[in-house]
Each structure stands twice: as C-alpha cells, then as structure tokens.
Specification:
The chain is mainly alpha-helical. The chain has 24 helices and two strands. It folds into two domains: 8-98 and 329-437 and 455-480, no CATH class; 101-328, no CATH class. The longest helix is centred in the middle third of the chain and has 26 residues, at 217-242.
Length: 481
C-alpha cells in the first residue's frame, strides 16, 4: 500500500517539529494550563451547541483566533518562510496546519452526493425496498436497517437518516403502524453510526484517523466490514424484540399491507431517466476509483481529495447553469469548522497541551496492547457521547502519531490503537442524543411526529444497544488486530 502523497502540511512538518522541539523546552506549565483551559472551554461549548445557539464553525473559530493571537503574543509559533519543493515560501502561520486532503475529500464528496441525489437514485432504492418488504413491519425494519447502513457508508450519516427516517414515517403511517415509529427511528439512528464504520469516507473520524494512520480504502473496508455485519444483525435482532416489531401472520393482513405499499411510486423523484442511469454508473465508478486510488499513478500522488473533486466537477456539468445551488448546499459550516479546528490543535501542540495529554495517553498504552486498546476504545466512546467526535479524533490521532513504538518503529495501519479510536469515536455517538449529528436528527424526527422522548429516555432505550456494540467492538479489535 502506498502512503498518501505529502500535503502542504506534511512538507512543512519538519519545520514545525523543529520549532516545536525548541519551544517545548521554553513553555512554562502556567501557559500550558492556560491553553488547556481554552481546550476545555471549546469542548464544553461544542457539547452545548444547541443551548448557546451557535454554529460549530463559529464556536471553533471563536476559540482559534484568540488562541493564535495569544500564542503569537507569547512567541510560541514557528513562522516561515517554509521550504517546499526547493523554494522558500512565505505562508501565514495559520495555513500550513490545515489538512487540505481532509478538506477536499469532504468538499468533493458532499457535492458529488448532492448532485447524484438529484437524480432520484436514493429515493428509488428506498421505495423499491419498501415494496419488496410487502408491508410486513419486521421485514420493513430489516430492509430499512440495512438500507441505513449502506446509505451511511456511501452518503453521510445525516443524509441517510433524513432519507430513511422520513420514508419510515410515511410508510408506517400508511400501513397503520405509527405506534412502531419510535422503534424504527431509534434503531435507524443507531445504525447510522454503525454504517459510518464501513468505509474510509463514511465518517469524518474515519477520514482523519485513517489518513493519519495510512489506512487504504480497501484495507479499511476489509477490516471494518465483519464488525459492521455482525453489529447490524445484532442491533436489528434486538430492536425487533425490544420494540415488539411484529410479523404479519394472516393472509388478509399480508394482502392489505401489500396493496398499501404498492401505491408508492419509485419513479416520482426521477426527472430524467438518462441522468438517473448516468448517476448510477458514476456512483459505482466513484466508489471503485476511491477504493483503488492508491494503486493508480498519478492518482495515488494526487490523493482521494482530488478524486472526489474530479467526480464532483463531472457531475456539476449536468447542471452547469445552476451550479450555485449546489455550492450553497455545501456544508461550509463543517469545512470552516475543520479549518479552525486544525489551526486550534496546532496552537495546542506548540503550547505543549498535546504533549501533556500524550503523557496521560502513554499511561493507557503502558497497560499493554490488550488492556490499552480496550481502555482507549471505551474512553473514546465515552468522550464522543458528550462532545463532538471530530476534535476528539483529530487530537487523539495527532497525539498517537507522535508516540512511537518500542525501538522507534512507526505505528502501521493495523495497529489496534488506531482502530480503538475509530470504533470508539463512531460508536460513542449511540450513547446519547447529542453524541452524533445523525442521532440528533433521529430525535428531531421523533419529536416532529409528536412522539415524547426526553434526553434520559433516549439514553435508557439506547444504552443496551450501545453497550453491546461497544463491548463487541472491544472484542473485535483485540481479536482482529
């Protein structure tokens, strides 16, 4: 497997490390604790995002700007010029820390998926599955659950939850089974985070940790797929039992349910049949290209971010006169959030905050490969349940990459510590309704349909699922890696 092509961040990393090494010996503990307090403040604000009515990007940038100013005032930052490709370039000190590979993957993938969804492909798949279920509630739960996992793997968790959750509401209402909607929506919300484990680009923590660890797309899929299959089966089996989702028994029930679901028209969302098939082909080609990028020169040098932007550009040609609509649909808040987060973490690195947290992480690693991996996974899940898993993943990946193995060896893509962070960051979102954006969407849909569900009630209903999923993940990481 070839490693990703060096980005601007990687090119200047040696200069950063050298500057950080010099500065680390000069940073007083009081200054380190001051920046640690900023980190705690950021985590608390992200956890209370809904309460303070502020976007993620504004929160992070609101902390990143004063952090950079304070670090500059205290002379903590290593300034340019930076030597890149044999040339000395003057680059603002807050630009090199941004991982542009991650930014381009998210930007290109989101545009590609948004344009592809315009073809009606995902709605067509959802309604075809609804018809294939024959209106049987338990079969419908399994079909929708599997669809949630697949959609979460190729789209994003929020989009998958909106598509499947909305269809669940319509289908169960038409079938006269609206009393089972809470179970459907809750299970689908939990499955979005399991589906988010399936591929390297399924969730942001996967992208951050996977690229840091040098995990290929195919390698990630092969490693994660067995767990996803087993966890999905267990979640659906438990859900059907705990929420008493029935099977249709009598012939009259089956015929009536079949008649009702047959009234759905999967072609309603297809505006152009040629574009529908073009989008289908492009989606398959996109997944295949992403999966084999590391084996293709020069794509292996350009990286997955370029591939994502390339496919986004091809799809936008279909709507060349209205591309501004798709630019508006891009989650600019998420991209700005990332940029600010990378800058903020870089400042924490030079203020020795990451080094201090790394010392605590070393105590976990000192427990040994088995106990250390288990402890790291559970801790990652616990923290992800109450705050955003993106900064957690970025920070842990940064710290872990700086802690070498015995003899100075570099951690390989199969090191269980990487996978402990990946599994913990994704599955922690199933413990609370604020643990991930998709579970928050699930709760929003539940309230939209006038179903009462408090924070505590969600935790009580989700805890048996989440606890079993995390325990299964611990066992899988210890046995697989």
């Amino acid at each position: 497997m070839s490693l990703p092509h060096p980005t601007l961040t990687a090119c200047v990393q040696d200069a950063h490390d050298l500057g950080a090494e010099v500065l680390h010996t000069q940073v007083p503990m009081g200054i380190t604790l001051l920046f640690t307090a900023l980190l705690v403040g950021l985590i608390l604000c992200l956890a209370l995002e809904e309460k303070i009515h502020a976007k993620k990007s504004l929160i992070v940038v609101g902390f990143a700007i004063p952090a950079v100013l304070l670090a500059a005032f205290l002379d903590l930052l290593p300034y340019g010029p930076y030597e890149i490709g044999g040339e000395a370039l003057n680059i603002p000190v807050f630009i090199p820390p941004i991982d542009w590979g991650v930014i381009t993957i998210i930007l290109g993938s989101s545009i590609f998926v948004d344009v592809t969804s315009r073809s009606g492909l995902f709605t067509w798949i959802a309604i075809r599955l609804t018809k294939a279920s024959g209106g049987d509630p338990r079969r419908l739960l399994w079909f929708y659950g599997l669809m949630t996992v697949v959609f979460s793997a190729v789209l994003n968790n929020v989009t998958a939850m909106i598509i499947v959750g909305s269809l669940s509401g319509v289908s169960l209402d038409k079938l006269g089974r609206k009393d089972k909607l809470l179970g459907f929506l809750l299970i689908e919300g939990l499955l979005t985070n399991i589906g988010g484990l399936l591929t390297l680009i399924s969730s942001v923590p996967n992208i951050i940790v996977g690229t840091t660890a040098g995990i290929s797309f195919v390698g990630f899929f092969v490693a994660a797929a067995p767990y996803v299959i087993v966890a999905t089966w267990i979640t659906l089996f438990m859900g059907a039992r705990l929420f008493a989702i029935p099977r249709l028994v009598t012939l009259e029930e089956k015929e009536e349910a079949l008649r009702l679901v047959e009234s759905f028209d999967e072609n309603d969302g297809i505006e152009s049949r040629p574009f529908f098939w073009f989008s289908t082909g492009m989606l398959v080609l996109f997944i295949l290209t992403i999966a084999t990028t590391s084996a293709w020169h020069p794509l292996s040098d350009l990286g997955m971010g370029f591939v994502a932007l390339l496919f986004a550009g091809v799809m936008l040609l279909r709507y060349k006169s209205e591309v501004d609509h798709f630019y508006q649909a891009v989650d600019w808040d998420l991209l700005a959030f990332f940029a600010g987060l990378f800058v903020f973490i870089n400042v924490l690195e030079h203020a020795q905050v990451l080094a201090m947290i790394g010392q605590g992480l070393e105590h976990i690693l000192a427990l040994g490969q088995t106990a250390g991996s288990a402890a790291l996974l559970v801790a990652s899940a616990a923290f992800s349940s109450v705050t955003d898993n993106i900064p957690l993943s970025a920070m842990l990946a940064k710290i872990l990459s700086g802690i070498p193995l015995e003899g100075g060896a570099v951690r390989g893509p199969d090191d269980p510590m990487w996978w402990s962070i990946i599994f913990g960051a994704n599955l922690g979102g199933n413990l609370t309704p604020i643990g991930s954006a998709s579970t928050l969407v699930a709760v929003t849909l539940i309230h939209k349909y006038k179903i009462p569900l408090s924070f505590g009630a969600f935790v009580m209903k989700a805890l048996p699922f989440a606890a079993l999923q995390i325990a299964l993940a611990v066992a899988y990481v210890l046995l697989r890696f």
